[in-house]
Structure to design on (412 residues):
């Protein structure tokens, strides 16, 4: 275990935390310290954002309490059998780091996770101590996201929600078979039980706030989870089904995806190459189709090919539209919102603008060009005042005509 300087340990533990994607700070209650009480804010005024090597925007101090772990998950760089440099912070050191970074205006809050040291409950106590000290001893009103440990005592897991804005428990892998094979120390039923327990606590707290003004808040930004993509044999159709089952059963705020990345001294059961990062992107697009565009889980799954994989060269909405062309073209001057949202190339803002503009006059292609930049992709799927696609929608080579040119991966 490295007993180096704060900077040395920060370099190790910040790098070890980069594999966790679920660090968004949206959705929490607004708090500030402009009245002179406490320190920090959950509102992004004056916040500096950093970018991880994989391009994700990070506005939180994102670290592990320790990268030592008693578990031996094959896909984890910090697993027990991994030959990596180990380091550890005390809760007091994490508190001091958070306040120091915040005062320098580097961050808007803290994302804290940890490997498991001694026991799951002991580690959970340490994580809670950081959040409790920041809130109680220092009046910290910034954002806190705690990664909780499902194997810990359920009472401890529930305590995390009293101090954190958001809590998360990773389901790790899309299938039970994949979890049993790659993370033998973890139990899928226990993970789901912990997620359900947190979900119940969030619901109970919201009900209590309706009846009692001063009832304590519990994880006001909700809970999220993360799945690793490409470490096992699960296809995109299975991943989409699993994610939306989690949304439906546990009312999660977000399901994050993290493309598997080969790690040093990797286990022989892992793939030798990472999946394309575009696969992760397509899964996020499928997630948005269900959450914001009115697609059902089954419809999004239908965008996948015979092997259950989403196409990488086109987005899931376009892939679905090409399979179900009988629903097109859509008249942009008459169609309701739910049909417009299914048109490839139209986002939620563009649809809102169309609905507003057509109250005043019938829309032409030129009008549409001022509302969206994807007119070339839209043409086969829409009817406008001066446009009708005739046989264009049914062309055999339609996909080739409208698919964007394929860009090679820089590090493929």
């Amino acid at each position: 275990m490295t007993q180096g300087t704060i900077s040395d340990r920060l370099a190790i533990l910040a790098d070890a935390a980069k594999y966790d994607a679920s660090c968004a700070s949206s959705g929490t209650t607004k708090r500030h310290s402009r009245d002179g009480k406490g320190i920090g804010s959950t509102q992004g005024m004056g916040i500096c954002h950093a970018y991880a090597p994989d391009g994700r925007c990070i506005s939180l101090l994102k670290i592990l309490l320790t990268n030592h772990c008693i578990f031996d998950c094959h896909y984890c760089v910090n697993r027990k059998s991994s030959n990596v440099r180990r380091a550890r912070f005390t809760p007091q050191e994490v508190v001091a780091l958070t306040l120091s970074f915040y005062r320098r205006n580097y961050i808007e809050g803290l994302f804290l996770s940890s490997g498991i040291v001694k026991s799951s409950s002991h580690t959970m106590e340490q994580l809670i101590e950081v959040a409790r000290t920041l809130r109680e001893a220092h009046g910290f009103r910034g954002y806190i996201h705690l990664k909780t440990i499902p194997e810990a005592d359920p009472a401890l897991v529930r305590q995390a929600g009293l101090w954190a804005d958001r809590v998360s428990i990773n389901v790790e892998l899309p299938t039970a078979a994949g979890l049993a094979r790659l993370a033998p120390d973890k139990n899928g039923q226990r993970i789901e039980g912990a997620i359900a327990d947190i979900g119940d606590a969030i619901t109970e707290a919201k009900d209590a706030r309706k009846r009692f003004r001063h009832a304590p808040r519990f994880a006001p930004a909700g809970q999220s989870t993360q799945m690793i993509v490409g470490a096992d044999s699960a296809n995109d159709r299975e991943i989409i089904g699993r994610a939306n089952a989690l949304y439906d059963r546990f009312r999660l705020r977000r399901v994050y995806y993290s493309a598997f990345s080969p790690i040093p001294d990797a286990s022989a059961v892992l793939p030798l190459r990472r999946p394309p990062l575009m696969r992760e992107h397509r899964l996020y697009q499928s997630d948005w189709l269900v959450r914001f565009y009115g697609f059902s889980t089954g419809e999004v799954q239908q965008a996948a090919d015979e092997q259950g994989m989403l196409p990488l060269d086109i987005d899931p909405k376009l892939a679905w539209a090409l399979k179900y062309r009988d629903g097109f073209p859509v008249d942009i001057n008459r169609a309701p919102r739910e049909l417009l949202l299914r048109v490839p190339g139209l986002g939620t803002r563009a649809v809102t603008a169309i609905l507003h503009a057509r109250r005043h006059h019938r829309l032409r292609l030129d009008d549409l060009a001022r509302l969206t930049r994807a007119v070339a992709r839209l043409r086969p799927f829409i009817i406008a005042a001066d446009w009708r696609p005739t046989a264009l929608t049914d062309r055999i080579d339609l996909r080739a005509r409208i698919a964007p040119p394929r860009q090679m991966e820089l590090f493929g």
Summary: The chain has two domains: 6-222, 325-402. DSSP finds 15 helices and ten strands in the chain.
